[in-house]
Every structure is written in C-alpha cells, then in structure tokens.
Amino acid sequence: MRTLLKMAISGIALLGATSMGHAASWDMPTPYPDKTFHTQNIAAFAKDVATASKGKLTIKLHTAGSLFKHKEIKGAVRGGQVPIGEFFMGLLANENPAFGIDTQPFLATNYKDAAKLWAAQRPAVEKLLDKQGLMVLFSVPWPGQSLYTKKDINTVDDLKGLKFRTYNPTLEKFVKHAGAAPTQVQVPDIPQAFATGRVEAMITSPSTGANSKAWDYVTVYTDIQAWVPKNVVVMNKKAFRRLDKDVQDAVLASAKKAETRGWEMSKAEAATKTAILKKNGIKIVTPSAPLMDGLKAIGAKMMADWKKKAGKEGEAILAAYAK
Ligand code: PCA
What we know:
Layout: H1 2-18, E1 24-29, H2 37-52, E2 57-62, H3 70-78, E3 84-88, H4 111-130, E4 134-141, E5 146-149, E6 163-166, H5 169-177, E7 181-184, H6 190-195, E8 201-204, H7 206-211, E9 220-222, E10 230-236, H8 237-241, H9 245-279, E11 283-285, H10 289-322
Parallel strand pairs: 1-2, 6-7, 6-8, 9-11
Antiparallel strand pairs: 3-10, 4-10, 5-8, 5-9
Helix pairs in contact: 2-9, 4-10
Bound molecules: pyroglutamic acid (PCA).
C-alpha cells in the first residue's frame, strides 16, 4: 500500500504544484505519531495554509513514518516525490556537523539557549539545504532530553552495559562514551523495543516518554536536561517557486506562525508531560553531582571532536552562539 501510494505521489507531486491558479493538494510525510505536539503543530500549520491561501493549497499529513520512513523523508522532498516534509535535524549529524550541533550534550540545555543556538545555526543549515534544493520553513524544539532507566543511576558507571535506545549519531556517540550499547529505534517502535528486551534505557523528552507510556517498562526518570534538539520542516524549492505569489506568502506567513506556536507548545509540554510521568508512578530524580560531572565530561570530549570536524563553519556557529 505504501509503495503504491508512493508511486502515485511521485507522479503527481510536482505536477500538482504546477497547476497554477488551481487548487493544489500536497502530501507531507512526518516521522512522529499524531498525538505528538510537533505533529499537532504541523496540523495547525496545514490548516493555516489552507485558510491563508483561500483553499488554493491544502496539505495532507502522513504521520508516524507512514508514507516515508523517517530516514527517507529528506531525500523524498529533495527528489520531489513530495514537496514538503518534517524530520529530526540531528538525524543528519553525519552529513554535516552543523545539523547536529543542537544534539551536542550540555551545549544548550534550556529554551533560551536553544533559541540562541537556532539563530546561530540557522544560516549554516539553510545554506546546506539550499544546495540540495531545499528551503527551511520552520524548526521547533523538543523539551530537554533526560534519562529513563529501570534502576537508579548515580554515576556514569551505572550506565555500563545497558542496552540503550538511540535516535541519531550524536546520541549514539554519547551512549558509547558512557559504556552502554546503542540501538537505533524510531519513536513509534519504542514500546515494542522495550517489551522485547531489545533496549532497557533511553534518553528522550518527557513528551516522547509520556506518549510512549514509559511507565510500562522503566521506573526512574533522571532529569539530566542534556540538550534541546529540534525538528525541521523543509520544502522543495522548485515546488515553492511554482506556487502563485499569494500562496507563497500564505506558506511563509503560516510557517512563521508555526515556529512561534511550536516553541510555546514545547515549553508547555515539558511541564505537563513530566507531571504525567510522575502521576503514572515514574520516580523523578534530580541527578547526582557525580553523574552530572561524568556526563558533562563526555559532553566536553564530544564538543572537542565536533569542533575538529566542523572546522571554520563550526567556529562561526559557536561564535554567533557565544555572542
Ligand atoms: N523525541 C524524539 C526526538 C527527541 C525527542 O524528545 C525521539 O525520542 O526520537
């Protein structure tokens, strides 16, 4: 079914966009489930686009990796199979370090710093994606990333040997430095991966923890607030150019609104979802000083590696961030 739909879509995506003056309908793949606040924010964005364009452009969401798997989404937008899509920016950390700076442990750990980091990172990200025929519409952070386990974690040593769920190359490195064993698992597959024993620990937001009912398989949430990573919504530039000017304006204005709304949703989410974890019996723990010292030492080492890899462009991002 997925393949059939994809074939149909690849045939009509750019064609649909060329029908100037007619109503166009766009398919938009996203990686996360419907109840995720990112997905809800994008649904509101789609509604705004329809209203602001007076029905000339409608966007149909295909959530939870149902149309393209998470790792395929960027390529699908780039190749024009779909005109627009969402993905986790740090998924591209191996393609270029600039994409993964917001997943560096303990660089930006609150919303204020995350906003500063996005402003510093955005020009580099836009330039890299522009070369691939993509434009950035908006980017929204997840709440701070913390630690979910089946036992108390008091030092980095307590993480040794744990089968650890990861979602991008940076997190994978972090986990390896801590002596645990990383396994990549997409959000929709988290409950199953814990249930079958493929993984026994993870680092993610209260959002993803609560939405995947973490209380069914872990007992402790250690509030390490290690980074504030972002999703990004990108659009195929050719598809954008083919839109009438008023529709282009509708898309850009709706994107701007979505970025502002998304950051606010994320902030609200951090508190409400942590409360839900607690209500369902998860022990919320303030991390011990030795644990934080150990994790921060790993972060410092990773930051040094990042700087080496990111070169001059990396320096420019960090300089802008430090201002
Ligand atoms: N949820 C996503 C990305 C970061 C987050 O909080 C995940 O766990 O994959």
